[in-house]
Amino acid sequence: MSEGVIILQQRFGFHLPTRIEFGKGLLNYLGELVISITGGKKIFIVTDTGIEKAGLLSPVLNSLEKENFNYHIFNRVTPNPRDVDCETGGEEAKSFGAELIVALGGGSVIDSAKAIALLHRHDGPLKAFEGKGKVTRPIIPIVAVPTTAGTGSEVTRSAVITDTKRKFKMTVKDIMLAPKLAIVDPETTYSLPAELTASTGMDAFVHAIEAYTCRESNPFADIFALAAIEKIYHALLPAVEDGDRSARDYLMLGSLLAGLSFSHADVAAVHCMAEAVGGLYDIPHGVANSIFLPYVTSFNVSADPAKHAKVAGACGLPVENMEDRAAAELLITDLKKLSKKIGIPTFSSLKGIVPADFPRLAEASVVNGSTSSNCREIKEKDYLDLFQVAYYENS
Ligand SMILES: [Fe+2]
């Protein structure tokens, strides 16, 4: 009853602008699925060279050729994608006369595709669209095909792109950036190396935890978040350790559910720190998220012990008869163990990290748009402390 009262007092919305098709082998039917959302024939494909080498581009091209589509391939996407590459992509899409974008890849590719679709219809630079709701005209449709589990970018309305001049990860967020169609085929992840499975899986896990515990959480997003936490927690280790295919299927589903949750809530301080680090160093987003998760959770517990205890319960930890704070403490210990088991490096062991940069990282974290969503108020000094604890505890 008390929960019902809270729901009645809270205003929230739930708008899913993306059609989702989930299933093994769907990559081979991409052409047919694309026909259902466009009358156009000119497809601009955004991908990266790793996807081509993994053999994932060929079935896409075959299915597009079968349906008589013309295509142009843009493969210059890097991890921690850069504004300058998106601006080049936007120009190429304009000169090709693109009518639809297919994004085939991980979060970097899908986020780049969103920025390219934006710049295809608007004059740059990309920086002019930083923040929420700056897109003024509809963009061409995006079909997102994730190949990691993952960022959930296939169902979100934001793109996180590095501003190369400021060495800062900026977020462009607008409902118009949401893909029209997400084709989620778990088979695309079957050959993903263990290291990438671990880092991308932890990114998805953090999406779900932050969506559930942040100030922007709502009853709809919570349902997706808890389902995602349960699936990802149980699938991550077998997917990383022996590439178990059934675990990879669940991880892909968990990542999608996590994407649905945080796109209708928000992320929070873990992502603020990870994005600050990703803007300055070439460190995978999921690795940074995994490193900071236990420390931010420890900082946050006092603001909402009950929700953190529920996260522990969703992970299947033995917390039935525990006080909420004790359950949350068990969760923190377990998060550190999980990170270690799946081979996530420690903060101090990462190449190039120097404590002299921590004030700059704290400054970049506090100005991140998701800082205000963190369940406990967090200031620049708190971020500085968290960077230091994460660094010195394991050095
Ligand atoms: Fe993320």
Question: Could you characterize what this model shows?
Answer:
The protein is of the alpha/beta class. The protein has 15 helices and 9 strands. A 6-stranded parallel β-sheet has the order 1-9-6-4-2-3, sandwiched between helices. A hairpin with a 4-residue loop joins strand 7 and strand 8. The relative contact order is 0.11. Residues 1-5 have low confidence and may be disordered. It binds fe (ii) ion. Fe (ii) ion is lined by residues 151, 203, 207, 271, 285.
SSE blueprint and pairings:
Layout: H1 2-9, E1 19-22, H2 30-35, E2 42-46, H3 49-53, H4 57-66, E3 70-74, H5 83-96, E4 100-105, H6 107-121, E5 131-132, E6 142-146, E7 158-163, E8 168-173, E9 181-184, H7 194-213, H8 219-242, H9 245-263, H10 269-280, H11 285-300, H12 305-314, H13 324-341, H14 358-366, H15 380-392
Parallel strand pairs: 1-9, 2-3, 2-4, 4-6, 5-8, 6-9
Antiparallel strand pairs: 7-8
Helix pairs in contact: 5-6, 7-8, 7-9, 7-11, 8-9, 10-11, 10-14, 11-13, 11-15, 12-13, 14-15
Bound molecules: fe (ii) ion (FE2).
